[in-house]
Structures are given as C-alpha cells and as structure tokens.
Amino acid sequence: MSTFFKSIGLSKVKLPSKKWLAFYTVSSFALSGVIYDKQQQKSIRQNYIDQVKDISNEKLEINQLPRKIKVFIAPPPSDYLETSLKFWSRYVKPILYYSGLDYEIIVENQQGVIRSYVANEMRNLRKSILDLPLKNLEEEQAQLKEGNEIIKKPEPVERLDMRKYMGIFYKMELPDEIKSEDCVKNEPELTGGVICLGRGAFKEYITGLHEGLLGPLDMPKEVIDKAREISKIENDKSKDTTLQTSTEMVKDITNEEKTNETMMDIPKEETFIETIQDSNTLVKNETTELPSGDASAGANEDASANEDASANEDASANEDARANDKEICLPSFLPEKSYNEISLPIELNNFQTTLKDRETGLPILIHQPIVMIPIPNLIGFLNIPKRIYRFYNKRYMCDSICGDVTHLVKQDTIRRFEKGDLQLGLEEELDWPSRWVQKGQDRNSEWVNELIGDKRVYEQLKVINEKRE
Amino acid sequence: MSFLGFGASQPQLTSEQKISAAETELDLVTDMFNRLVNNCHQKCIDRSNYSAGDLNKNESACLDRCVAKYFETNVKVGENMQKMGQNFSAGGRF
Prior knowledge:
The complex is a heterodimer. By secondary structure, chain A is of the alpha/beta class. Chain A is built from 15 helices and 8 strands. Chain A has a domain at 36-138 and 192-219 and 339-463. In chain A, the strands form 2 sheets. Chain A has a 6-stranded mixed beta sheet with strand order 3-2-5-6-8-7, with helices on both faces. A two-stranded parallel sheet of chain A has the order 1-4. Chain B has one domain: Helix Hairpins (Orthogonal Bundle). In chain B, helix 1 packs across helix 2. Chain B starts with 14 loop residues before the first helix and ends with a helix. The chains are: A alpha/beta, B mainly alpha. Chain A binds chain B through residues 55-62, 66, 98-102, 160, 162, 165-167, 285-286, 288-296, 298-300, 302-303, 306-307, 309-313, 315, and chain B through 1, 4, 21-22, 24-26, 28-30, 32-34, 37, 52, 54-58, 60-61, 64-65, 67-69, 71-72, 74-75, 78-79, 81-82, 85. Chain B: Residues 20-83 form the Tim10-like domain.
C-alpha cells in the first residue's frame, strides 16, 4: 500500500494497520446499510404521501365530518403492544394524516377485545333494526358478575344549551345536523374503511363479524354460567394458594378474560399502552365532578357535544392498571362456531339493502373495505440472523404497507372478499413462536384456531389487498 | 369548594343567587370558548395558506383534534386540582 502512495506522490500518507482497516470496513458497511435503508424508507414514504396529499386540500363543509377509518391493532404474540404501534405510527399513520382522513384506533392487550367490540356493534345494529334497547360493553360485562349489578346511567340534567349563544351563533343559526360526508355516497364500499394490523386482529375482526351477525342477541345462559364458574374457581384458588395462577385450570374455554396471564405472558404492570376509547367511554369520563362546579359542568356538555365531531387518538401512555380495566373482553356468544346450522337473521334482510347505522347514517362495518396488514415480528435468540436480514431490508415492507394504505385512501383497488382471503396475512403466523402456539392450542385460545368463515357473511365483505393464489 | 362537603344536597339558593350563578357560568363558558377558538386557530390554520376561504379537510381534522385535546387537558387539570384541593382541606383540619 505504501508503495502505491509513493508512486502517486503522497509519500507521507500512512494508512492505519490492517486490523483497524478491517474494523473500519465492517463498521462502515453496517452503518451505511442502516443509513441507506432509512433514507429509502423516508423517500418511499414521502412518495406515497405526495400521492395522497391532494385529498387533504379538498374543501370540507362546516356541517360535514370527514371519512372515518377504523384501525384495529393487536400486539404480536409474546410481545408488547408497542411493537405493533411502531408499525402503525411509522408506516400507516403518516399516510392517513396527510390525506386528511379521520381515524379511530381500537387497541387490545388481551385476546378477544376486538372481537367483543365488533360483535357488540353488529348486535346493537340488529337490536336497533328490531327496536330493542341497545347495550354497550360494560353492561354486557356486568351480566357476567354474580348478582346482576345494574349500572345506573346518570340522569341527564336539563341545562341551558350554551352552544346556541357562543361566538357568532349569538346572531347566526347553528348549522344543520352534522353528517359525515360519506352519507351521500351511493356505493357503500366507498365509505369508511377498516385496517387490521396483525393476523390476530384480522382473525378477531372476522370472527367478531360472524358472532355478531349470526349469533344470539343476548348472552346465552350457558356462556354466563360457564364464565361465573370460572371466576368462582379463580376466587377460591386465589384464596388457597398464592403461587398457582389460574391459567393451569383454565382449559377448553374460548374467553381469555378470566386468565391472569395475558397473551403476552408478561406481568400486568408492564402493559403500559392506553387503550383507545371510542366516544362513549370518553364522554363517560367527562361526567366526573369538577371543583369549579357549574361552569365545568357546562364545559362537560360542550365536550360531549364536540366528541361527536372529534377524532379519537391515543393520548397518554402511562395508565397501566386502568388500561387493563378499560378493555372489555366478553366471551364468545357462539362458542361452537357452527355457522352452517344457523340461519341468517330476518332483520338483516339477506343483505339486500345496505345496512346503515341509526345514529350516523353510515353503512356498517361489514360494507366497509378491509386492509389487512401483517406484522412480521420474529423473536428469539436463534432467529437473530434472520432478524438482522429483516432489519436491513425494512424498506420493502415499508413499501408494501404504505402501498396498501394508499390504496385504501384512494379507494382504487376494491374487490369482493373470496374464500382464499381468509388466509390473508398467513405468512405472519410463520413468525409466531412455536411454544406460544403450543400453549395457545392447549388452552384453545382464539388466535391459533383456524379462521372459519361463513359464505353468507364474507361474501358481503370487500378487500383492498391483492389476491392470494 | 369546601362548604359542599358538609351538606348532603345542593345548598338552597335564592333566585338572585341562581341568576348570579348562571351569569358566572355563562362568563366562564364564553371565556373558555374564546380561548379555544384563538388557540386552535393559531395552531391549526397555516398563516401562509389563505388562497381559499373554506376550510380543507386537513384543517378541519386539525381543529377537531385541537378541541378534543383542549377539553381533555381541561378535564385532567381539573381532576388534579380537585385532588390537590382535597389534600389542602384535609391538611387544614389537622
């Protein structure tokens, strides 16, 4: 080397020793790989954002709400929710934000929360068609406890509606009823949208739809009794021994809410992600008493009025114990999943007309197109070479995820759901740790069961992902 | 704040007191509304983009979120104040 330098006239230059050269080479390879990958991700993301940005500059009337997308996020097995939320905030959220769409996130820390939510929505829709009283998740959960505690709804107090006199509305009329801009669209597949982050979320979403549409409207007695039995066993056992957890006794049931072990197998203090509340629970939180008495009560009313129009975003991340209490996981109303024997309920009218939500006038979840985004997440010591390879090639994953979300935003690749689409995201299951899967099969938990769909339900769904062969 | 702890129900107010209570409530709500409008306008509406008079979707969504955050902040601060107030009154009695 030094003779080379002499020949070109730089005789004074001295290279570092061979070992240092080796070190510098290896480290610069590693570093440049990371930097290149991150730069590419940025430019890919910016590319998709630019495709979508024009939508956000469109006009929105004062009395209109933007198109709302529901995002269901489930943590990968044996891992924290934060891993999934990283995918959400890095790849999905920027595109939704720059397109000006509204989104609502529904998170879960245990198996079954998303299913309960979706099934409850479907059941409430059927009840509203039949003019029966609706029930929210807390009321359903109260049924499971011994001695039916009836939750008393706070009686609405007659108050002067200040909104009529605020600001310019002192002289002007309040705007007409605030409706979503999606209400005027003719085709239901162009309204709203659903994003399922994770194979578990997708499975729960589909089973929730089936349970809500084909299952009974009220919690069947066998399910209530079983759940009460389990909680009794749990209480007795916890009084006897402190070491034995209830998980050893819990077998052959489909609900995971009674087990102390969450699917992540981590102690509860460490699940620190706040669940997202939809507008119902947020309004309930605001009816608490505040020290400034009447004035704040007026503020509460304004808040509850504004909640109808506000986007629900996950705020704080530091409510550990409360987060687990807020998640409501109901046992399945249809534990056997015998969809073939059940006939389609009359009120659904064989889906001849698009079913619309009573309050908002939007077609319900089943008509909205679905995007399934798999979350590849390998864990384990022996997987480290694979994980290094994936770490250096994140840009391809970024490309596919951002591409799918952009298709959802632009609504250009909507197609009917087919039987093969039940396997969407199956490659994610290859990443699941085998021990976790084994445990799940012993406990007969939801995620490891095969996803069964009933044709009458899934032929109504629409998908955005590309076809699987 | 402190006198409400004694009575079992709301203290009986005369009509004058009711009127003044309603007035203060109106003042407070109006004040909060004005602050909210100023705050959210400052944060959400870009000073350089006055090419159209209507709000676009981005700004609309931003305003919705601003209002939601404002109220949530209000509620949280109120709850904390209430806790502080209880501590004060408990400390005062000893």
